[in-house]
From TrEMBL:
Coiled-coil ranges per UniProt: none
Keyword Transferase attributed: yes
Alphabetized InterPro entries for the sequence: Alkaline_phosphatase_core_sf, Phosphodiest/P_Trfase, PIG-G_N, PIGG/GPI7, PIGG/GPI7_C
Superkingdom to which the source organism belongs: Eukaryota
Family matches, as CDD domains: GPI_EPT_2
Keyword flag Transit peptide: no
Domain (GPI ethanolamine phosphate transferase 2 C-terminal) ranges: 511-902
Protein name per the record: GPI ethanolamine phosphate transferase 2 C-terminal domain-containing protein
Similarity comment: family membership: Belongs to the PIGG/PIGN/PIGO family. PIGG subfamily.
GO biological process, one term: GPI anchor biosynthetic process
Length: 917
């Protein structure tokens, strides 16, 4: 019983510790809510008075902003873009149209990008997570400034804008951004408002946000045949708006600025959220601006420069917390005096933020700003204000702005070192508790207290050393801080209780010298994998590590089997089973070579063609249909042959066939596979509703069977309930998977069955839990997952949903993403229940497997927290290491919940055996 309590405790504290580390590592920025006003626009440059009203006034009467979601750079610049958007490309050749290349920072998802464009601030990585539930922006922004200064704003498109700015728009109509299978209506709902607004003259800013291109990318990728028609549709809308702008200009309503831009790009796999060039480079096309055409390559700006630039164009105060710079490339015909004033105002505003940094006056950027202002003063006081000197001042301001922006961005992303160190301290404790399996039945309070005092002192010393500050007693002045710190101390005491019970002289229970070949391979595999995560390249290409481990294991297994065959042949006693095992291993190696090309993953080779890309082509519809039918048929067949041979398995068979048919029709409805003749797909995703109704019947039916088992055959209760859990997990995963990934589910079942039989035959079944865990990771990457947030299959989160339900969406994404690891774990436990008849032996083995699995997951995560803390100033910390931390944390949390569920089931089994006669 103690071992069960210890395991449950480590599961809970391990989950709490990683959550604590994430909270400390990812900075949550609290914005200054000060709102800029016209009084912030300077009337003096140092001691020289200037004509503010003449130097800073609106350049246009109306602004139209058209955001095309996931409009990456090559959609306008390469051959496909030029062919699909001929009108826009023709317009770019004119001097009144600017094409700029905007660089954006990760995370490349919509909500943080809208924040960057409107506030001029760099969103933090936490905004990636908060993207599912956007809260209103309360800090200063360009829309607030526009509304405050009597601009009427209208909006149509992605309802993320309405969540961020709920009171800003005079008229609006939002479309949900989360139904990624909708390519058409989501854009038609925006376009249908344009004609009506063309006849209205009561607005000065129109914002349109089109989602169709992003949705196509999520479902079919950037190289889909659907991309070109969608770009052409956008091209026609641009032409329509431009035609109306010409009409307005002729009638004296102008000048009007029309800006077309992408909020973020699109990875070659179709997703976004990461830091690849395709995700972080988008075009900004400004029609009605004045550009210098003396350059051949497009000018580059940062996306967060849009807030300051639009403020200058509209003659509005620049948002108070802005970090961005005015893009003078859009203001080429502006007199140099006005350019310099705009830059001075911009630099002064950014310098106000810069002065909040400690030791700002010792920074090189501060001296650059002072020098730029001095140059500007000299230019103002000179007799003939030459253009050459003026452009020197412009260069000085730009340099100062860039330096200040860079330092501000670095300083805004600060971690809570106290929380991170506390979390790492607890993770080390939990790992240590799990590593040692021998314990004293009783332990004295004195021993626990002694260990507690040592650990408490060590914790305070590490925090003081690492964060270069002593843990201050002022932390106890706040009641929340006081409760939190006392809770941490209480948990530390509990940790010390479990640590005090360990028999350290037994040294890990299993000594290294007793490790067999197939045992030390996994021991060193854990360490090699954990250490490899210190390299950004190994994090990006982690699938290669697991593929190498998997192939190495199969080759060693083949060598062992071949050695046995040779030894037996010398004795003229060769068993056919050995030959069969060799053939099976060779087939597994061949299968690996095929399935690793099902989805291109990682960063280096994800652009290469893969089987999934081929199957999703229109001409491959027959092939993918056959793929889906084979996958579903295999799942039904495997479920049938492994079910208990009774009348009930026939009922289960019909339910499984019905569920499989619903899954087939779900993909038919998405037009990815061939529809059934004479069948007309339901609207409003009724196939999915039928699936869930059948699934509910399946669960009730399974519960009834479990009650019968509990009464008649108590010893088989555990195996039955795990079997039903596996069936349920597989069917829900099959519903959410992409059609080309369905085949992975039956293949994983078959491979694990083969491996378990080989291990059992070779009498090396002790490593079952670890090899199953390895297989789970291998299939995780077969599915197309990686350590980039761009590779999350967002479409899976919205299967069958008719409204935005973030909790269900999150659960769907978790099931789809971690389908293979969870399935591998459950299959291991199921095979264990079939191998042991004694209830006592079975519980001991399951407990041991859970402990080993926890060590396998927790030790690398613990090591990784040290790696990411040491490398928190690494160039790729937010683009590579931080996403990996999120993936590993969620992986650990999901598996901890599954293990807790299994421990609960084991407790139920214990109660049934003891109390039910």
């Amino acid at each position: 019983m103690y071992k069960n309590i210890r395991l449950i405790y480590t599961l809970i504290i391990g989950t709490f510790s990683i959550a604590l580390f994430i909270y400390g590592f990812f900075p949550i920025v609290h914005y200054d809510n000060t709102i800029a006003s016209m009084n912030d626009i300077p009337q003096f440059i140092d001691n020289v008075r200037v004509e503010r009203d003449a130097l800073y006034k609106p350049l246009v009467n109306k602004v139209i902003i058209m955001v095309i979601d996931a409009f990456r750079w090559d959609f306008i610049s390469d051959s496909v873009g030029k062919a699909a958007m001929p009108i826009t490309n023709k317009l770019i050749e004119n001097p009144f149209v600017c094409l700029l290349q905007a660089k954006i920072e990760p995370p490349t998802v919509t909500m943080p990008r809208i924040k960057a464009m409107t506030t001029g601030r760099v969103p933090t990585f936490v905004d990636m997570v908060l993207n599912l539930g956007s809260e209103p922006i309360v800090s200063d922004n360009i829309l607030l400034q526009a509304k405050t200064h009597n601009h009427d704003i209208i909006f149509y498109g992605d309802d993320t804008w309405l969540k961020l700015f709920p009171t800003m728009f005079k008229r609006y109509d939002g479309t949900t951004s989360f139904f990624v299978t909708d390519f058409t209506e989501v854009d038609n709902n925006v376009t249908r408002h344009i004609d009506n607004e063309f006849h209205n003259t009561d607005w000065s800013i129109m914002i349109l946000h089109y989602l169709g291109l992003d949705h196509i990318g999520h479902v079919t990728g950037p190289f889909s045949s659907l991309i070109k028609p969608k770009l052409t549709e956008m091209d026609n809308i641009i032409a329509k708006i431009y035609s109306k702008i010409l009409h307005w200009n002729e009638n004296g309503i102008g000048p009007i600025l029309f800006v077309i831009c992408g909020d973020h790009g699109m990875k070659d796999s179709g997703g976004h959220g990461g830091a690849t060039l395709q995700e972080t480079t988008v075009p900004i096309i400004a029609i009605g601006a004045n550009c210098s055409k003396s350059y051949t390559l497009p000018k580059k700006i940062a996306q967060l420069d849009m807030a300051a630039t639009l403020s200058v164009i509209l003659g509005l105060p620049i948002p108070y917390s802005n970090f961005g710079s005015v893009a003078l490339d859009l203001l080429d015909n502006l007199p140099i005096s006005r350019k310099l004033f705009a830059l001075y105002y911009n630099a002064k505003q950014v310098h106000t933020q810069f002065k909040k940094l400690t030791d700002y006056n010792f920074q090189y950027a501060h001296h650059k700003y002072i020098d730029a202002v001095k140059l500007h003063l000299a230019w103002l006081k000179s007799v003939n204000n030459s253009y050459e000197t003026g452009y020197d001042v412009i260069a000085a301001y730009r340099s100062a702005l860039n330096e200040m922006k860079e330092l501000l961005v670095k300083n805004i992303l600060k971690n809570d070192t106290h929380l991170m160190i506390t979390a790492m301290f607890f993770l080390c404790h939990v790992s240590w508790i799990l590593l040692y399996d021998q314990y004293y039945p009783l332990v004295t309070f004195k021993k626990v207290l002694k260990l507690f005092m040592i650990n408490l002192l060590l914790w305070i010393m590490i925090i003081s050393f690492w964060s270069f500050e002593i843990l201050s007693l002022s932390l106890f002045s706040n009641i929340k801080n006081c409760v939190f710190i006392l809770s941490i101390i209480g948990l530390l005491f509990l940790n010390c209780y479990f640590l005090a019970k360990i028999k350290y002289h037994h040294y890990f229970n299993i000594k290294l010298k007793n490790f067999k070949t197939f045992e030390w391979i996994f021991f060193y595999g854990i360490l090699i994998h954990a250490i490899s995560l210190s390299s950004s390249s190994y994090v990006e290409e982690e699938h290669q590590t697991w593929y190498f481990f998997w192939v190495s294991f199969l080759v060693l297994l083949l060598c062992k089997n071949s050695k046995t065959i040779i030894m037996q042949s010398l004795k003229i006693r060769v068993h056919s089973t050995q030959f069969l095992i060799s053939i099976e291993i060779l087939l597994l190696l061949t299968g690996h070579r095929i399935f690793r090309t099902l989805n291109s993953t990682g960063n280096k080779y994800n652009h290469l063609p893969d089987i999934a890309g081929y199957l999703m082509k229109e001409e491959s519809k027959v092939n993918i249909t056959v793929f889906v039918i084979i996958a579903l048929a295999l799942l039904v067949w495997i479920g049938f042959i492994h079910d208990n041979k009774s009348i009930y398995r026939w009922y289960a068979l019909f339910l499984n066939i019905g569920l499989s048919l619903c899954i087939y029709l779900r993909h038919t409805n998405n037009q990815t596979i061939i529809p059934i003749s004479l069948y007309h797909p339901f609207k409003d995703v009724k196939e999915i509703l039928i699936f869930w109704n059948l699934f509910t019947i399946f669960c009730i039916f399974s519960a009834y069977r479990l009650i019968l088992v509990a009464k008649r055959n108590k010893t088989n209760f555990l195996s039955y309930i795990i079997f039903f859990l596996i069936q349920a997990w597989i069917m829900v995963s099959a519903l959410l998977h992409q059609p080309y990934n369905l085949i992975l589910l039956p293949i994983q079942l078959i491979i694990i069955c083969i491996i378990n039989s080989i291990l059992k035959y070779n009498n090396i079944g002790k490593i079952n839990i670890l090899i199953n865990a390895w297989i789970g990771n291998v299939f995780y990457f077969y599915q197309g997952n990686s350590n980039s947030l761009a590779d999350i299959d967002i479409a899976a989160g919205y299967v069958g949903l008719q409204s935005y339900r973030p909790i269900i969406i999150g659960m769907y994404l978790i099931v789809n993403t971690y389908s293979a690891p969870v399935l591998a774990y459950l299959l291991n436990m199921y095979h264990r229940t079939l191998s042991y008849k004694s209830s006592h032996d079975l519980h001991y083995v399951l407990l041991s497997d859970n402990r080993i699995y926890m060590i396998w997951k927790l030790v690398p995560v613990t090591i990784y927290t040290f790696i990411i803390t040491i490398q928190k100033h690494h160039l790729f910390i937010w683009s590579v290491f931080a996403p990996k931390l999120l993936y590993e944390s969620m992986y650990l949390t999901v598996m901890n919940c599954i293990i807790l569920l299994l421990e609960t089931i084991i407790l139920i089994q214990y109660i049934i055996n003891k109390y039910i006669k």
